[in-house]
Amino acid sequence: MILRKLLTNAAFAAWLTRGLLLILVLPPVLAFVIAAAAGFGPSANPANLRIFSWALLGRSLFIAMIVALLAAVLGGFCGTVTGRLSRAASALMLFAFVLPLATPPSVHAYVWRNVALSAGLLGGLFVEGGSGIVNYAGAVFSMVSAFWTIPALAAFAVSAGPARRYELEARPFASPSIAARRILVPSVLPAVAASAGLVFVLAFGEFGAVALWQINTFPAHVLSLYSATFEPHLAAAASLVPALVTGLAAALVFLVAARALSATAVERANVEREILWRPSRVLKALLAVFVLFLVAGPLTVSVWYAAARWSSVAGLAGILGELGFSIVFASAAALTGAAVAVFAAAAHWTSRGPWRTLILVIALAAFFLPSAGAGLAVKSVSQLRIIPAAFTATPAALVYALAARFLAVPLLLAALALSRVDANYRRLVEISGATGLRAIVSVGVPVAFPAAFAGFAVAAVLGVAELPVSMLVSPPGSPPASVDLFNLMHYARQSEAFAVAVAMSVGSSFAIIGALAITRRLWKRYLPAH
Amino acid sequence: MTRQGFIVVALLILAVIAVAIYSSVRCGPEVVVYTSIDEMPARKVLEDFQRQTGIRVKPLFDTEATKTIGLAMRVLSEMSRPQADVFWNNELSNTVNLARKGAFEAYQSPSAKDIPSQWKDPSGLWTSMGIRARVIVYNTRLVPADQAPTTLEGLCDPRWKGKVAVCDPRFGTFATHVAALAAAWGKDKTLDYFRRLAANGVKVMAGNSVVRDAAASGEIFVGLTDTDDVLLGIGRGMQIDYVFPDQAGAGQGTLVFPNAVSLVKGAPHPKEARRFIDYLLSTDVERGFSTPKEGWIPVRARASADAPTQKLSSVKPMSVDWDAVSQMVGPFSAEVSGILVK
């Protein structure tokens, strides 16, 4: 009887899920905030280090904006065209779009830097400070190469999905080309804009790719405060600026994405392709050129370098073992995050109250912290006496750190998925008598589950490539692959570095594609209309 | 996928995690070693120790030229509950820094009795078993040996304008070098030196090995790097050679710096840690590890009679106050970085 009361008590259910969320995210966020507060103290900067620089911030914003703009144009075009290809061609293109995302941005920079070096373009490349146009162009190009398929995937989703329905309705009144111009393009734009915002967030926070092109940006500056000056409090204080920028950008992305999603709440139109706009041969050729250059190009370069000195790759088995370790623990972290996220999003949807949005915002905070700051925050939590020693001596701390850091990904996706569900449906659930945990488990979780599962896949891939958190929190004796990859690149052991990069990107791509396929099946199962 | 399918996948993942956790915490003697020594030579030493003693070694390696957090920062952040037993650093300033903050416990290893006093802390907070030096590397095809610069000041000569390189002053041994110069010359003179070097078109590269490679390829003519990088390059047949700077007359001498091994205070496995330190500081290990092939030079003169060791043993070393260097290494390197890195 007591159990039943608990199961149907809305307040209990809400606080149980909030409690799970807060246990995961609040300790490191609080530890970071305390460290940042200490960085503002009167004696926090005895060496009078330069903490803030408008020039650095401006440069970082400028680079991120250019990257987002180029990625949006390129990705928007390629995704829209891909949405109107045959099923087989679309599937091939989708795989091509996933590949760059599964490769760490620093590997993209490494590929293009090597290409530029081989082409003799880099006379003054290594001059730190990036005064040369080659440095800026290389950094921007590398990040476009890493992120351009995010808008492409978003544009594809709309072009192959809801835009077909809108276009079909317009066809009796307009030719295919006019319908495409007036219907397809405006339908795709919000999704591309939202994903460009995401690219901006990622490019603004990226430090590996810009460092390879010897450009100093604000995130790189924050990282050097952490690592080169031993001033974690100052670094935490300084990183509040980029955290604020990414937080605002992410809020904007969320709003635009919600609008874009609401426009896609239509039934899929199963029509003959001939009725709708189809890309011309020129456009298809252009798409092929972009994909060959930006996807097949880096992959070919990587395989070529890996194969060029194949004999030296004999020691690769150990590194691949470490890659296996990284994948397992990043997956465990992503699974933990996705499980908490799906319950939290469902509770957020089924409950009301002033706290619910605030708690969701706190849950997202760990994603906006600098990676090193998040790692050190988890480290300081693990140093507390109440935490069992086994927590730090095993991969548990690493799983916890990665789960907290990337919780935002499944949480945002699950919350967005639930935001699409009609409010009347929620009232219907209440009227039917399903309240509390029962409503969360039987209604909210199934609806949010597919989105959380997609979030799991993305968070797992991000976790495998994560460097500073892994470096600070991974247990001795179990080195993460991201650290090895970084060292191999630094030591110029190119064949091994590229072999690891290829294994990482191809393996992760199959994982993402598999997860997306499962998500699609689940989506169909739970939401028959789609 | 069916519900049963999900359960099977979840159980598989849980099983793999359980096995990994079990392998992390399994019983038996073990020692946790944090090391910023290059992984390949360090791993050989660690594996030999494990084979000989049966004590399992759990290493944690650093990321080179850390664009991420270094091991020293990790040792510092773990001070209230250490995970490491031994910290084996590839240079000294960060070790001295950590020692001052109370991260280490004194240990006078019996193996270190015959190590010269200049290469060990009098109170036993650190001991060295290999040294390197900061040298000027040059391309032997482009620069005749008698025209290579012989002083740091010589790198500001307009002859080398745009053809001289250093690595990032915020990281690695160049950070130590910059701090050592500031400790010896004073801040103003040091900053002035780097301003003149910047005016001479110095290139800042990603690491010491990159400076060496650039010299070998002819992209630059001369550069500042470490002996281990040069010796490894020469061993691979690169057309480079090196000069110990500031040797003539009243020159200040060359910066010679040791690696350092320390026992972490509150180490979870102190007995095994002491045994590892004893092993590491033994003459046999020094002879095997500190070789030109590995890029290190032994601290005991009798450990090796090869040419680079003899060459270094005759070098006039720069007088260094390591305590002053350790206090300056972070903030001052960042200041120099502001000059070289716009």
Structural account:
- The complex is a heterodimer of chains A (530) and B (342).
- By secondary structure, chain A is an all-alpha fold.
- Helices cover 77% and strands 0% of the residues of chain A.
- Chain A is globular, with a radius of gyration of 24 Å.
- Chain A starts with a helix and ends with a helix.
- In chain A, 55% of the residues are buried.
- Chain B is α/β, with parallel strands linked by helices.
- In chain B, the strands form two sheets. In chain B, strands 5, 6, 7, 8, 9 and 10 form a six-stranded mixed sheet that branches. A five-stranded mixed sheet of chain B has the order 2-1-3-11-4.
- Chain B is globular, with a radius of gyration of 22 Å.
- In chain B, 56% of the residues are buried.
- The mean pLDDT of chain B is 86.
- Classes of the chains: A mainly alpha (530), B alpha/beta (342).
Total domain modules of chain B? 2
User: How confident is the prediction overall: mean pLDDT of chain B?
Assistant: 86
Structural class of chain A: mainly alpha
CATH class of the largest domain in chain B: Alpha Beta
**Unreliable stretches of chain B, pLDDT < 50, 5 or more residues?**
none
